[in-house]
Hints:
Blueprint: H1 2-7, H2 11-21, H3 35-60, E1 61-65, E2 79-84, E3 89-91, E4 98-100, E5 110-113, E6 124-130, E7 135-139, E8 142-145, E9 148-149, E10 168-169, E11 174-178, H4 188-191, E12 194-195, E13 199-209, H5 222-234, E14 246-247
Antiparallel strand pairs: 1-2, 2-13, 3-4, 5-6, 5-13, 6-11, 7-8, 7-10, 8-9, 11-12, 13-14
Amino acid sequence: MKAxxxxxxxxxxxxxxxxxxxxxxxxxxxxxxxLAKRAQREAIAWFWVALAFLLINGTIGQARVIPxxxxxxxxxxxxxxxxxxxxxxxxxxxxxIHVPLxxxxxxxxxxxxxxxxxxxQPDYVKRVIGLPGDTVEIHDGAVWINGQxxxxxxxxxxxxxxxxxxxxxxxxxxYFVMGDNRSNSYDSRFWGPVPRNDIIGTPVMIYMSLDAPPxxxxxxxxxxxxxxxxxxxxxxxxVRWSRLFHFF
Length: 248
Protein backbone atom coordinates (compact mmCIF):
# COMPACT_ATOMS: atom_id res chain seq x y z
CA MET A 1 0.00 0.00 0.00
CA LYS A 2 2.85 2.36 0.85
CA ALA A 3 4.56 1.44 -2.41
CA UNK A 4 1.44 2.42 -4.32
CA UNK A 5 1.38 5.79 -2.58
CA UNK A 6 5.01 6.47 -3.46
CA UNK A 7 4.54 5.65 -7.15
CA UNK A 8 1.34 7.67 -7.50
CA UNK A 9 2.24 11.25 -8.57
CA UNK A 10 0.59 14.16 -6.85
CA UNK A 11 -1.55 16.58 -8.82
CA UNK A 12 1.17 19.24 -8.47
CA UNK A 13 3.86 16.93 -9.86
CA UNK A 14 1.63 15.94 -12.73
CA UNK A 15 0.92 19.51 -13.68
CA UNK A 16 4.66 20.24 -13.75
CA UNK A 17 5.24 17.26 -16.02
CA UNK A 18 2.51 18.44 -18.37
CA UNK A 19 4.03 21.90 -18.47
CA UNK A 20 7.45 20.49 -19.32
CA UNK A 21 6.01 18.38 -22.12
CA UNK A 22 4.07 21.25 -23.68
CA UNK A 23 6.16 22.54 -26.64
CA UNK A 24 6.86 26.26 -26.91
CA UNK A 25 5.10 28.04 -29.75
CA UNK A 26 7.24 28.26 -32.91
CA UNK A 27 8.24 31.73 -34.11
CA UNK A 28 6.08 33.01 -36.94
CA UNK A 29 7.30 32.07 -40.41
CA UNK A 30 8.19 34.73 -42.98
CA UNK A 31 4.92 34.10 -44.81
CA UNK A 32 2.89 34.72 -41.63
CA UNK A 33 4.58 38.04 -40.83
CA UNK A 34 2.62 41.22 -41.53
CA LEU A 35 3.31 42.80 -44.90
CA ALA A 36 4.88 45.89 -43.30
CA LYS A 37 7.30 43.74 -41.28
CA ARG A 38 8.35 41.73 -44.35
CA ALA A 39 8.88 44.93 -46.34
CA GLN A 40 11.03 46.31 -43.51
CA ARG A 41 13.22 43.19 -43.43
CA GLU A 42 13.60 43.26 -47.21
CA ALA A 43 14.58 46.92 -47.17
CA ILE A 44 17.20 46.35 -44.46
CA ALA A 45 18.68 43.40 -46.37
CA TRP A 46 18.96 45.42 -49.61
CA PHE A 47 20.44 48.34 -47.68
CA TRP A 48 23.34 46.16 -46.48
CA VAL A 49 23.83 44.72 -49.98
CA ALA A 50 24.00 48.24 -51.46
CA LEU A 51 26.36 49.40 -48.72
CA ALA A 52 28.71 46.47 -49.35
CA PHE A 53 28.66 47.19 -53.09
CA LEU A 54 29.47 50.88 -52.58
CA LEU A 55 32.30 49.99 -50.19
CA ILE A 56 33.84 47.52 -52.65
CA ASN A 57 33.30 49.82 -55.61
CA GLY A 58 34.75 52.85 -53.87
CA THR A 59 37.73 51.40 -52.01
CA ILE A 60 38.58 47.89 -53.21
CA GLY A 61 37.93 47.29 -56.89
CA GLN A 62 36.02 48.26 -59.99
CA ALA A 63 35.43 46.96 -63.50
CA ARG A 64 36.85 48.65 -66.59
CA VAL A 65 36.71 47.93 -70.33
CA ILE A 66 39.41 48.86 -72.87
CA PRO A 67 37.93 51.06 -75.65
CA UNK A 68 41.07 51.80 -77.70
CA UNK A 69 44.20 50.15 -79.04
CA UNK A 70 46.73 52.34 -77.21
CA UNK A 71 47.87 49.43 -74.99
CA UNK A 72 48.08 46.73 -77.68
CA UNK A 73 49.19 44.02 -77.52
CA UNK A 74 49.21 43.98 -73.72
CA UNK A 75 45.55 45.01 -73.59
CA UNK A 76 43.17 44.62 -76.52
CA UNK A 77 40.02 46.51 -77.42
CA UNK A 78 37.19 44.72 -75.61
CA UNK A 79 39.28 43.44 -72.70
CA UNK A 80 37.28 43.70 -69.46
CA UNK A 81 39.44 44.36 -66.39
CA UNK A 82 39.09 44.12 -62.65
CA UNK A 83 40.89 47.13 -61.20
CA UNK A 84 42.30 47.21 -57.67
CA UNK A 85 42.11 50.48 -55.79
CA UNK A 86 43.57 49.04 -52.59
CA UNK A 87 46.20 51.41 -51.26
CA UNK A 88 45.98 53.71 -54.29
CA UNK A 89 42.72 55.57 -53.99
CA UNK A 90 39.37 55.72 -52.22
CA UNK A 91 36.43 57.38 -53.88
CA UNK A 92 32.71 57.96 -53.74
CA UNK A 93 31.11 55.75 -56.44
CA UNK A 94 29.53 57.49 -59.45
CA UNK A 95 31.25 60.79 -58.57
CA UNK A 96 34.64 62.41 -59.19
CA ILE A 97 35.27 62.67 -55.44
CA HIS A 98 38.30 60.58 -54.42
CA VAL A 99 41.19 60.59 -51.96
CA PRO A 100 44.71 59.31 -52.82
CA LEU A 101 46.12 56.70 -50.44
CA UNK A 102 49.62 55.52 -49.48
CA UNK A 103 50.76 53.32 -52.39
CA UNK A 104 52.78 54.68 -55.32
CA UNK A 105 53.17 52.94 -58.70
CA UNK A 106 56.45 51.40 -59.79
CA UNK A 107 58.24 51.81 -63.09
CA UNK A 108 56.66 49.83 -65.97
CA UNK A 109 53.54 49.13 -63.93
CA UNK A 110 50.18 49.58 -65.69
CA UNK A 111 47.98 52.16 -63.98
CA UNK A 112 44.48 53.55 -64.37
CA UNK A 113 44.05 57.27 -63.86
CA UNK A 114 41.86 60.26 -64.51
CA UNK A 115 43.30 62.21 -67.47
CA UNK A 116 44.74 65.42 -65.99
CA UNK A 117 43.77 67.48 -69.04
CA UNK A 118 40.09 66.37 -68.83
CA UNK A 119 39.06 64.87 -65.44
CA UNK A 120 35.46 64.39 -66.62
CA GLN A 121 36.50 62.02 -69.41
CA PRO A 122 36.61 58.23 -68.89
CA ASP A 123 39.69 56.88 -67.09
CA TYR A 124 42.88 56.19 -69.05
CA VAL A 125 45.05 53.07 -68.89
CA LYS A 126 48.79 53.50 -69.53
CA ARG A 127 52.17 52.23 -68.33
CA VAL A 128 54.40 54.15 -65.92
CA ILE A 129 57.70 54.98 -67.62
CA GLY A 130 59.21 57.83 -65.61
CA LEU A 131 59.09 58.21 -61.82
CA PRO A 132 59.29 61.52 -59.92
CA GLY A 133 62.73 63.07 -60.41
CA ASP A 134 63.63 60.89 -63.44
CA THR A 135 65.06 62.42 -66.57
CA VAL A 136 63.24 61.06 -69.64
CA GLU A 137 64.58 61.14 -73.19
CA ILE A 138 63.17 59.62 -76.37
CA HIS A 139 65.45 59.03 -79.34
CA ASP A 140 66.67 56.24 -81.60
CA GLY A 141 63.24 54.61 -81.35
CA ALA A 142 63.54 53.97 -77.61
CA VAL A 143 63.08 55.51 -74.15
CA TRP A 144 66.07 56.55 -72.05
CA ILE A 145 65.75 57.03 -68.28
CA ASN A 146 68.55 58.92 -66.51
CA GLY A 147 70.84 58.21 -69.45
CA GLN A 148 70.11 54.45 -69.58
CA UNK A 149 68.05 52.81 -72.33
CA UNK A 150 64.86 51.31 -70.87
CA UNK A 151 64.36 47.64 -71.75
CA UNK A 152 60.79 47.22 -73.02
CA UNK A 153 59.67 43.88 -74.42
CA UNK A 154 55.98 44.80 -74.32
CA UNK A 155 55.86 47.62 -76.87
CA UNK A 156 54.33 47.57 -80.32
CA UNK A 157 56.38 49.60 -82.80
CA UNK A 158 59.14 52.16 -82.35
CA UNK A 159 58.92 54.86 -79.72
CA UNK A 160 58.78 58.25 -81.40
CA UNK A 161 58.91 61.57 -79.52
CA UNK A 162 56.10 63.33 -81.47
CA UNK A 163 55.31 66.45 -79.38
CA UNK A 164 57.80 65.48 -76.67
CA UNK A 165 60.94 67.59 -76.27
CA UNK A 166 63.61 66.14 -74.00
CA UNK A 167 65.50 65.68 -71.90
CA UNK A 168 62.58 66.11 -69.52
CA UNK A 169 62.71 65.88 -65.73
CA UNK A 170 59.55 64.44 -64.18
CA UNK A 171 58.22 66.82 -61.49
CA UNK A 172 57.81 65.66 -57.87
CA UNK A 173 54.57 63.82 -57.22
CA UNK A 174 54.05 63.07 -60.94
CA TYR A 175 54.57 60.15 -63.34
CA PHE A 176 55.44 59.99 -67.03
CA VAL A 177 53.14 57.42 -68.69
CA MET A 178 52.94 55.92 -72.17
CA GLY A 179 50.85 53.39 -74.03
CA ASP A 180 52.42 50.13 -75.21
CA ASN A 181 51.25 50.78 -78.78
CA ARG A 182 53.73 53.58 -79.25
CA SER A 183 52.46 54.78 -82.63
CA ASN A 184 48.83 54.95 -81.47
CA SER A 185 48.83 56.31 -77.94
CA TYR A 186 47.82 59.73 -76.66
CA ASP A 187 50.01 59.93 -73.57
CA SER A 188 52.57 62.00 -71.64
CA ARG A 189 54.46 62.75 -74.84
CA PHE A 190 51.56 65.04 -75.76
CA TRP A 191 50.04 66.33 -72.51
CA GLY A 192 52.74 65.85 -69.86
CA PRO A 193 52.98 63.80 -66.66
CA VAL A 194 50.16 62.45 -64.50
CA PRO A 195 49.90 63.83 -60.95
CA ARG A 196 49.87 61.12 -58.30
CA ASN A 197 46.49 62.38 -57.08
CA ASP A 198 44.93 61.38 -60.43
CA ILE A 199 46.07 57.73 -60.26
CA ILE A 200 43.24 55.58 -58.92
CA GLY A 201 44.38 51.98 -59.31
CA THR A 202 46.00 49.18 -61.25
CA PRO A 203 44.50 46.31 -63.27
CA VAL A 204 44.49 42.90 -61.58
CA MET A 205 42.79 40.51 -63.99
CA ILE A 206 41.05 40.21 -67.37
CA TYR A 207 37.70 38.58 -66.62
CA MET A 208 36.20 38.89 -70.13
CA SER A 209 37.46 39.74 -73.61
CA LEU A 210 35.19 40.21 -76.63
CA ASP A 211 36.13 40.80 -80.24
CA ALA A 212 33.61 43.49 -81.19
CA PRO A 213 33.56 46.86 -83.00
CA PRO A 214 35.46 49.49 -80.96
CA UNK A 215 32.45 51.82 -80.73
CA UNK A 216 30.69 49.19 -78.56
CA UNK A 217 33.00 50.12 -75.69
CA UNK A 218 32.76 53.89 -76.03
CA UNK A 219 30.81 55.76 -73.33
CA UNK A 220 27.12 56.13 -74.12
CA UNK A 221 26.97 53.40 -76.77
CA UNK A 222 24.70 51.16 -74.69
CA UNK A 223 22.88 49.62 -77.64
CA UNK A 224 26.13 48.66 -79.39
CA UNK A 225 27.44 47.22 -76.12
CA UNK A 226 24.28 45.17 -75.61
CA UNK A 227 24.61 43.69 -79.10
CA UNK A 228 28.30 42.93 -78.46
CA UNK A 229 27.41 40.92 -75.34
CA UNK A 230 24.48 39.21 -77.10
CA UNK A 231 26.74 38.31 -80.03
CA UNK A 232 29.22 36.80 -77.58
CA UNK A 233 26.49 34.49 -76.28
CA UNK A 234 25.21 33.53 -79.73
CA UNK A 235 28.69 33.26 -81.29
CA UNK A 236 31.14 32.08 -78.59
CA UNK A 237 33.98 32.37 -81.11
CA UNK A 238 33.92 36.16 -80.54
CA VAL A 239 35.06 35.54 -76.96
CA ARG A 240 38.86 35.54 -76.64
CA TRP A 241 38.90 32.55 -74.32
CA SER A 242 42.70 32.44 -73.99
CA ARG A 243 42.70 35.92 -72.40
CA LEU A 244 40.18 35.13 -69.67
CA PHE A 245 41.50 35.13 -66.09
CA HIS A 246 44.85 36.58 -67.13
CA PHE A 247 46.47 38.17 -64.05
CA PHE A 248 48.86 41.11 -64.10
